[in-house]
Amino acid sequence: MKQKLLLLSGLLLLSLTSNAQIEVTKSTIDASTPAKPYAVATADLTNDGNIDLAIGTYDSSVVTWYKNNGDDTFETGITLEATGTAALSYIESITIADLNTDGHNDILATGSYNDNLVWFENNGDETFQPAVLIATGIAGAGAVKVANIDNDVNDNLDIIVTAYTSNSVVYFLGNGDGTFGTMRTLALEGTGAGPASFDIGDYDDDGDLDVVVGYTGNGDVKLYDNTVAQDGLDIDGNVIFVPYTNTVDADNGWLWSVIFADVNNDGNLNIVKSDSEPTSGNPTLAWFTNASSGIDTTFTEAIVSTSFSHGGAVSVADLNNNGSNDLILGNSYVSGVDLICFEGHASGTLSDEIVLDDTTGSIFSMALADFNNDNKLDIAAISYLANDVTVFYNNTTLSTTQFKLTDVVLYPNPTKDFLMFEGLDNNITVSVYDLLGKQVISQPLAIGETLDVSELALGIYTLKINNEVTSKFIKE
After folding, report:
1. Please, are residues 238 and 215 in contact by the beta-carbon 8 Å criterion?
2. Per CATH, the architecture of 24-394 is what?
3. Hey, what CATH class is 409-475 in?
4. At residue 262, does pLDDT exceed 80?
């Protein structure tokens, strides 16, 4: 549904703002999923403007998706077919993206026991084709993500997968039509390294996407610099990733999640890690500063104190719409404190722990999206031991005492191409940030001008006017 969104212009507003504590309401989407849900992903699978859910299960080895009705309810899950050579055995990861550029989001999944990578093509009518094998022989196929890592001018999506048993991270360059090139190696470490978690982002802000990897086997967190923006592909068509000189972190017990995010709101990506079995002296949750000093960067750890020691899924996003990113962590065990967050402050610091839920343990995976179209990010999570999938709806309110001189309206929202601003009587500077907190647009706008967002990827973005006013919009 298109809507106009009221903003309060920073040039024309004197305000005193205080943040209400972040609060959520738990809603169980499926209380009896196929056995042992391991991964969750979100995207609009039906092109109706609502963000849907999909899960991958470990023991039952199936992918199930849930249509979002947009009114705080979801339809009964539909399980997709994966048989024969495209069968899945013990799914560890799924992701959603439009792999064949037909305007419909497809689903990718990995089978960790049979080393398969498959995709389910979205027909665009709320049905999917049976699974098609992209590749086999990915030894211990685990975490999977998609991105344009070779800076393809057509923005074709490539696939990156961890191969736990072969101690490597591999990738497949996309052709834009649902087909992919041969398996290539992004990173290869020594025996027993065991890569399990990774993320993709432009860490050094040089125009290409770097990769951070969490190695469960040896406890290391390592960063790899993508050189394609400077050097292009090598003679064999490979994207060259160069390991940073210094290891980001070491001696972790069982790394669960490693992600990029702007934790301290300085416009640079940091690295966040959660550890499910921290060794003596190591924290459950920590993030590492971005010194922006090139491949020889030395990483400084900032420990985040938690009430439980078994870190699970971790995310960073602005839950209370105050312009600062918050840190969310799930418990990989069951302890009575299972989902917590740390509110981000404009100073770059985090609040003490806030308990969001104490009834949903073994949160192996989570994903953030606005499921009920109220311009606030909600949290979708699976519970491995309870066999359920849950959405925690965001009830946080922003308490503001203000002297309003002029109202500004932002529309249309969601949008495909342009954003318009109604009610301005001064020129402004507009900044747009993705869910990682990375600035993707910054430009001045005169009265009557529109903001071109057509080149942005699909998703939810934060918009600031004059670095003060904050709102969300959806790029569809």
Report:
1. no
2. 7 Propeller (2.130)
3. mainly beta
4. yes
